[in-house]
Write a structure and sequence with these properties.
By secondary structure, this protein is of the alpha/beta class. It folds into two domains: 145 residues, Rossmann fold; 167 residues, 2-Layer Sandwich (Dihydrodipicolinate Reductase, domain 2), CATH 3.30.360.10. Helix content is 33%, strand content 27%. The strands form two sheets. A nine-stranded mixed sheet has the order 14-13-12-11-7-10-9-8-15. A six-stranded parallel sheet has the order 3-2-1-4-5-6, sandwiched between helices. Helix 5 runs antiparallel to helix 11 and helix 9 packs across helix 11. It starts with 5 loop residues before the first strand and ends with a strand. The model has no long low-confidence stretch (mean pLDDT 97).
Length: 329
């Protein structure tokens, strides 16, 4: 009897789906095969179907009704989570959802509860947790007396139509900088208070633009650590910054998003650069967890994505209310 090959489906065949598609090309993950793909844009679905010899669909409901899938990737716009996860869970599909997993915290918690009830393997798209130097970085932080940190996701504005509006993307903090919030939570623990301010009026020449150009989100963690996460999508001439600077009693850590980390101590400097295909490892972990029936293999489960969503939505709420302090449950 041959080795079991997992059958995968995709809802959404755009940019972030392409990131995952590259990991299923050329037998990089031989234990799984993409057999069905769905996108509202027919050309995308057809291209993905041809690439993987899969069946194309325009309606995910039809795909889930007709296909016998082991697992499903949800790679849609933040505003498009309209029940597809719940339907997949009803069908018994293991679930990988790209971030942000929703714009409604109530809906995300409903999905989280259903996944737990069905005991389905689940993951969310926070691939930075799979960077090979993150365990070392996390261990170093745990041994320090951290004073505060400054974190950044500052660059240009993505060109896709839905990103430029808060009502469809959630805004930069929710859609993009959520990766940075996730790493802060991974390093420092749970957030208990959020206070944020946003800035508009820098970008004035983009049609249908309606979100913050910049924001500063102050966080207080349960262990007392404080820090600020900055977002900016207004950079056009270079000079952006992505990462986290951590200041401690006995040293400083400078993490550059997906590039590397430098730790400066009184008598030594520790430097590490990314040495692994962390996105591939994220997808391999998902497949391995399904085959081994072991959720613990997933470094970024759906439940962590829900917590990230809670923090970033609280940031939006605070921005909309003059920096009001939002206390998290």
């Amino acid at each position: 009897m041959g080795k079991r090959i997992l059958k995968l489906g995709f809802i959404g065949c755009g940019g972030i789906a392409g990131f995952h598609f590259g990991h299923y090309d050329d037998q990089k993950i031989p234990e799984a095969k993409i057999t069905a793909v769905c996108d509202l844009i027919d050309s995308r679905a057809q291209a993905a179907a041809q690439r993987f010899s899969a069946v194309p669909y325009k309606d995910y409901r039809e795909m889930l009704a007709k296909e016998d899938l082991d697992a499903l990737y949800v790679c849609v716009e933040p505003c498009a989570h309209d029940g597809m996860e719940m339907l997949a869970i009803e069908k018994g599909c293991h679930l990988f959802v790209e971030k942000p997993v929703a714009l409604s915290l109530d809906y995300a918690r409903k999905v989280e509860k259903a996944l737990k009830a069905k005991k389905l393997i689940n993951a969310a798209g926070f691939q930075d947790r799979y960077l090979d130097f993150v365990p070392m970085m996390k261990s170093w932080v745990a041994q320090q007396k951290v004073g505060f940190f400054s974190a950044y996701w500052v660059g240009g504005m993505p060109g896709v139509w839905w990103w430029r509006r808060r009502d469809t993307s959630g805004g930069q903090a929710v859609e993009q900088t959520i990766h940075t919030f996730d790493m802060c939570r991974h390093l420092f623990g749970e957030v208990v208070e959020v206070s944020a301010f946003g800035r508009r009026g820098i970008i004035t020449d983009v049609e249908n633009y309606d979100t913050e150009d910049a924001s500063a989100v102050n966080l207080r963690f349960a262990n007392g650590i404080i820090g600020t996460v900055y977002s900016g999508c207004f950079i056009r001439g270079g000079g952006g910054k992505n990462g986290i600077d951590v200041f401690t009693m006995n040293g400083r850590l400078e993490y550059t998003e997906r590039v590397g980390v430098t730790i400066t101590e009184p008598n030594r400097t520790i430097t590490a650069k990314t040495g692994n295909e962390y996105g591939l490892e994220e997808d391999m972990a998902f497949i391995d967890a399904i085959l081994q029936k072991d959720q613990s293999l997933i470094l970024s489960p759906y439940s962590e994505a829900v917590k990230n969503l809670e923090v970033t939505l609280a940031a939006n709420e605070s921005m909309d209310n003059g920096g009001k302090v939002i206390r998290l449950s």
